Amino acid sequence: MNTNEFLQYFAPVSLKDLNFSKNKGFEKWGDKLIINSIEEPFPEFDDHIKLAIIGVKEDRASIGNKGCAYNPDEVRRYFYSLMPQETKIKIADFGNLIVGDTVNDTYFALGNVMAHLLQRKIIPIVIGGSNDVAIGMYKGYVNVSQIINIFALDSKFDLIADDEPITDENFLHEIVCSEPNFLFDYTHAGFQTYFVDKKALNLLDDLHFERVRLGLLQQNLERCEPLVRDADMLMVDMNCVRASDAPSSFSPHGLYGEELCKIVNYAGMSDKLTSIGFFGNNVLTDIGGRTSQIIAHCIYYLIEGFIWRKNDFPSENDDNYIQFKVLLKNLEDEVVFYKSKKSDRWWVQVPCTNLMKQKYIRHYIVPCLYADYKASENGDMPDRWMVAYNKLNI
Question: Using CB atoms within 10 A of its CB, is residue 363 exposed (0-12), middle (13-18) or buried (19+)?
């Protein structure tokens, strides 16, 4: 797919409608971006582009949140005006995906766009729209036959389908239960128990997926870092943020804006992350544009994290790591921990056959913390290590 064919999927951005003028006064992010705009033609694809913004103005499957389709341009309005980091990394804004005649057509188009960018090793930053747009993101990985981990931030589970049409309240069922399935692990964080159906909790447990409720997440945000570091795709429903910080959110409880920015910053630093999506912000109820600003700030911190990347995902034969071995009861193989000399981050290897290692090449070495290594000396392994061990040793 050449540049012209790719851009046919998009409607260009209007800088005039965003009230943004380039190169006036201090340099802003809008000056540094390569923008597919009405005012300026987009150049040929540059192999140095590392991240790309994609707007998806789709909310037809939304229940009770019509208006979130206007989110992408509002986020751009705030992000373009932020002061950029010192970096030579090239970032593009391809504009807004042209939505299809049906919602499924939009998912299909986004899947094609995602696949093209993933093959070029460009990280899509998707700005929805309702959170069912994440189906299109997942289809991109299916199109390139890549097995992935997903990390989701949401105050509730959009999981139970009951044979109903796809909506933003049940779309996860389409991802976690579809066949063929390319989802290895799914982690749901920031949920609030009083918004969650027990059937959804039971289904998540039956599938051996992980969950972290809001209270535990906020008690120790650092414990979230290995979970985020293990994700290929990050989904953020802005209802995970409390309404006092994000007025378009429906709950008085949730993450603080700065906590969300910290989690997204963790994601940016992970060389495993290959896409991120922000969904659910309804600009019609977003007082003072505060929710849009939080998303803009998250994109800023995502880029900052990307700049800090160490490319230190471990391999079994690599001098950039210190290996620590622990012998567990009832397990013949030693458990190997890796500490990166570049970043001091930790991983732990899950014993499995060579065939499973080849199939799940990025999944049998699991991110962890130093505290997990110390706990293993007493025979206590991280829960997520046990989940991966059970999946890889069926």
Answer: buried
Of 123, 157, 298, the C-alpha closest to 239 is 157
pTM score, two decimals?
Answer: 0.95
pLDDT for residue 24: 65
Structure-token pair, residue 219: 């008690």
d(CA 276, CA 51): 10
Query: Can you give the three-state secondary structure of 239-292, one letter per residue?
Result: HHECCCCCCCCCCCCCECHHHHHHHHHHHHHCCCCCEEEEECCCCCCCHHHHHH
Q: Where are the extended beta strands (E) located within the chain?
A: 10-11, 34-35, 49-56, 90-97, 123-128, 148-153, 183-191, 210-213, 233-237, 275-279, 321-326, 335-340, 346-349, 365-368
Dihedral over Cα of 380, 351, 211, 261: its sign? positive
The pLDDT value recorded for residue 162 is 67
Pairing of strands 183-191, 210-213: parallel
Handedness of CA 97, 306, 213, 188 (dihedral sign): positive
Q: For residues 168 and 345, what is the distance between their CA atoms, to the nearest angstrom?
A: 36
List the single range of 41-45, 89-93, 260-264 with lowest mean pLDDT: 41-45
Spatial neighbors of 327 by CB under 8 A, at least 6 apart, are: 334, 335
Q: With CA atoms as reference, report the closest residue to 228 among 283, 187, 279.
A: 187
- pLDDT per position as a tens digit, 214-246: 999 999 999 899 999 999 999 999 999 999 999
The Cα–Cα gap between 316 and 140 comes to: 29
For residue 26, give every residue at least 6 positions away whose Cβ sits within 8 Å of its Cβ, in sequence order, or none.
83
